[in-house]
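WARN retry 2 of 3 for item q-0093 after timeout on previous attempt; input resubmitted unchanged.
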Amino acid sequence: MTTEELRALFRDMQDKGLRPMLCDTEVPLYDAEVPCGEPAQCTGDFMESVLLPKELLSIKPEFMVTVKGESMKDAGIATGDVVKVVGIDKPFDGDIVLACIEGEYTLKTYFEDEEGRTWLVPQNEDFKPVLLDGSRRVKLCGRVKEIVKKAPRVPSRLCARAVRRAMKAKDVRPKISEMKVSYVFQEIAPMIKAARLWYAVYRMMADYRVIEVEDFDTFLYMLQKEVPHHEHVPLKVELQRLAVQSFAKPVKLWTPSNAPVRGQRYKSYVEIANKTEELLIS
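OK item q-0093 returned
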């Protein structure tokens, strides 16, 4: 992106009431598990730098650490998150602080009790608070100023489910009467020369919501009711075996390169499916 394009983008965002900020200031990123002294002296444990807007930085030293562990999960801080830490002289009750205990980093909540004792309190009941009584070497390195959450990946099945709901609401098919369904079975039966070809009829009826997808029992019941003496009546398992690859999708999404049948057989399924649709909407 060129400078002019960036400026144009910023102007457009500002016109919409947003406040864009340019990440132009380097802030060091450290590994939270590696022990170190004062933040300014952590050069040996330096991993990389990240760019942040200078508007978000304070006049005190700041650095970033990657979180590992579950002791602060109830505060919404989990493994993989990155926290921005700012140097402070003394924390206040409720501040989340980065502390170095016996050479190991940890995030805890700073707390002073009614007797004046200071504690580092985890936000997870599986971990115990640490009393700062001088029995262990403890160094408070700074206060957590900001949490950068690790972006999760959403399972594709959840996206597919949401899309199906949206498409179902948008694609309102005409209601097919029982009389029309009976007529379709009677008209299409002479075209069926093999039991499995009924799958094309089932799939188109499912597309038009005459039956639910994968409700093979209802389809077979309707088939036996309307054409009880047909010589090619499929078994349920035969229909189920065809509901794979592109045949598991609506007929309009079938493709010859990704279908469970090939060549002329594929064309026969498509022909019967199209004829079924023609009869349903005629």
